[in-house]
Amino acid sequence: MKPYQLLPLRFHDFKNENMLLVNEAGEFLFSSKEEFNNMILYRLDTKSEIFLDLKSKHFLTDTEIEPVIKMLATKYRTKKSFLYDFTSLHMVVPTLRCNSKCKYCQVSSKSEDAVKYDMDKSTAKRTVDLIFMSPSSSIKIEFQGGEPLLNFEIVKYIIDYAEQCNLTEKKKLEFVVCTNLTLITEEILKYLQNHKAYISTSLDGAMALHNNNRPFRNGQGSYEVVTKNIKRVHEYLGEGSVSALMTATKASLEQFTDIIDEYLAQGFNAIFIRSLNPYGTAKEDLDSLGYRIEDFIKSYKKALKHIININLNGTFFVECYASILLGKILTPFTTGFVDLQSPSGVAISGVIYNHDGYVYVSDEARMLANAGDATFSMGSVHENTYQELFHSDKIVSLLKKSCLECLPICSHCAFQSYCGVDPIRNYAEQGEIVGNRMTSAVCKINIAIFQYLFELIKENDKPTMDVLWSWITHKPIVKEKQISHESN
Amino acid sequence: MEDIIREIQDNRILIKLDKSIYEKEAVLAASYKMTNLCFIVVKPLENNQLGVYFETKNSQSEDELKAIAKDYCNEVLDQQTRLDAERRYGNIRDLLVKQAFSPIENIKDKIKI
Amino acid sequence: MKVIKSSPVNINEKVIGRITKEPLSRFKRRDSIFATNDLNGKFAGYTGVITDNYCSDSILKRLNNIPLCHSVTELDYLNNGDIISLDENGNICVLYSKDSFHNAILVTEECNTNCIMCPQPRKKDKESITPFNIKLISLMDKSTKLLGITGGEPTLIGDELLEIINACKKYIPNAQVDILSNGIKYSDFEYVKRTVLLQHPNLMFAVSLYADTDNEHNDIVQAKGFHKTIQGLYNLALFNQRVEIRVVIHNLNYKRLLRLAEFIYHNFPFVYHIAFMGMETIELAEKNIRQIWIDPRDYMPQLKDAVLYLEQRNMAVSVYNLQLCILPEVLWRHAVRSISSWKNIYLDECKECGLRNDCGGFFSSSRDRHSEYIRPLKKESQFIT
């Protein structure tokens, strides 16, 4: 008779004779190798602290089974609760035209006057109608491009029409405009303010770096215009109204800390450090833009250390990717980050409606189509019903192949609970949607980042952990007033 | 790997796979993946083995053919691992996918023409 | 609750009424108990009369059959609007203090657990006290902000508890009603549903949990309650009810307090508040004192870890029944003045303490059993909330 029953768990050989254990609900525990061996050999003393710790965290049970399974199930459902609501992120491409020609452009943007790449009104209306058929109680409409401001008329039309539809639907409705910020006017700012829209932009670093990566079509640098407009937006719409992300290229890897300082200087309190995605121009130009995975990881860790220090010195500043991963690791909640979930967020969590009415399972799928590969098209807003678009055999079989729980390597990975699948990325990089984890760049990067975050968690330095938690809870650390007192 | 890959004649190589380790399904799936590079045929052998025969398609050299065969070994492992994962975890995957689409079961939409 | 002694006259069964210190007109006297030291008036219509004067037989003869308590020991303690009961032994129980924040009613003395540190003796109810309690609630002031429902284990009276909640809804509609429970009966989904269907606008459930594993919790509550309590918490959460978790700290559970905090965060992240509480060492707690006593100062490191853990995760946490001089400073902002005034005392050491007005003090039963480290803090100390 075994003295206790083991429950489903995954484990990882951590450094220095430690093991990282993760249960089915994503709760983790560090143990020594010896304790781990004793556990799996049923030799643990059921009165020991480590036994109680493992029992408390539902890695094993020596008394009841059914109520423990119930508790694990409850926590599991919470982690997967993003599945309850279906698609909440709806990206819309008002135009593929762009006034810039970023070196790594993934969307194969078109020149400014190519108006046949604009979305027309009937496509826009049908798009919004479809968006509101989603059962999700919260809808985020995110304008991507090209450069959305080049077809601001349609952006306005969509926002106005969506708000009108929402009078009866009463969903939580949010708008985000992704723009390079070079075409901002007073009129546009006023409109965005009235409709409480957020802005997302790209800033690749200080002038030299930014201009090198993101010139206008005529070759001129965009840095001055962009930074001037960032100030305007902050003044007009307030702090936190605009967020920025950066795309890492070979040139920027050595300069992550400078880029972060530049973000601070421009008034941002957060950065999203993105590695290079292999689509569009980026794919064609991988030689000059690309970098080794190891170099990216090294730079990322350095950047994270730098950002933590900025926080320790009193300024609230978040690295968004780490913040999302930490939310998955440390909290019992789901995060709603559609790019890293299992099942993958393609179609069921995020979807994109192109200017021509074609619908794609993700922005990456759209980028592939722009470059000539329409494998992941769901259909057209003008020709297909909602069910045909979202519940086709194609989509169902795509989802079936995007569950980490059932993929080789991932099914046993200790980080499975925190990770996710991007089948389009696998297809783009490795030729098929399941892919091979051993040769996957994304897998390598994510494992390295997970490993690093867990090292920080294990170290448990209170100031550092307070910083990380301040990112998760969005509550900046308040410096404690020192109360002085002595006893009589 | 030399004793696993056996050259039987010019432009032909044989790999022997133990049936107790590699299922027919995995062997065939991996073989199919190589069909753009070479011609493949699978035959049962004695001692509970499967023989996978490779023949050049695009005039590859013997070394190139050997390299293809080695890749094939990894590929058949990959396919077998996928089969095993499917067997063990297919259930939970199906539950998840079912849950993923359940919110839209009843959504009706008509195209206005 | 507070009990005041007196000499009873004309009392055959329990009398309940609302204190009035001023005489009322004839038609407004129902349910009122007149507190006076002038026995010359007419008292017809009052539910009762109490006085600190001594009443000789001749005075008593003048009075009719109105229930009367004389030679009341602490008449000044009582204020207008307070609700008291008078019994045949002359016990005046203060059931409700209009100006107090800490009112609570006892709905049963029975319990389905037997917590090793319980300060409330378990007894069989002779009869249902629900009619009495409903009467009590009907006399409470409409402005009442808070009412605790306690016991024993309140849910043991089953549907009568629903009647009580309904009475609160009717008579004290602005009050938050806190049900103090071990949560076991709430593992019954239908019972939770019936409770929620009452649609009381401001209900809170304070559920006790003492350890992160079943054996350890069950050893403390001396019943197999752990998983039922958890199911109760889940059921309440399913109906989106406001739930608080209460943890009484003592020698048997202080070591794993941080683990309990982790357990609460990961399994019950929906709770709106967690309270860590110092022990009240009377009744069963006193009987078991050797097993459960620990100087509270000695568990401060564990308490600090547990509270800061939850605070880091944005959970609302409070510390009840512990004194500022033994709490680490970083926990002062969580300390609450939680002890009901009628059993709240301060020690001699507290006379010189600069933070006396911010500190919750002690249970009156702790006069002879408290931390060895109680000492006054300097007058210049600033208490920053």
Describe this structure in words.
- By secondary structure, chain A is of the alpha/beta class.
- Helices cover 42% and strands 14% of the residues of chain A.
- Chain A has 20 helices and 15 strands.
- In chain A, strand 8 (172-178), helix 6 (186-194) and strand 9 (198-202) form a beta-alpha-beta unit.
- Mean pLDDT of chain A is 90; it is low at 481-488.
- Chain B is of the alpha+beta class.
- Chain B has a 4-stranded antiparallel sheet, covered by helices on one side.
- In chain B, a hairpin with a 2-residue loop joins strand 1 (5-9) and strand 2.
- Chain B has a single domain, classed as Alpha-Beta Plaits, CATH 3.30.70.60.
- In chain C, 24% of the residues lie in helices and 19% in strands.
- Chain C has 2 domains: 2-93, 3-Layer(bba) Sandwich (Glucose Oxidase, domain 1), CATH 3.50.30.10; 104-366, TIM Barrel.
- Chains in contact: A-B, A-C.
Provide tags for this entry.
heterotrimer; B: about 110 residues; alpha+beta; Alpha-Beta Plaits; 4-stranded antiparallel beta sheet; about 25% strand; C: about 375 residues; alpha/beta; Glucose Oxidase, domain 1; TIM Barrel; 2 domains; 8-stranded mixed beta sheet; 10 helices; globular
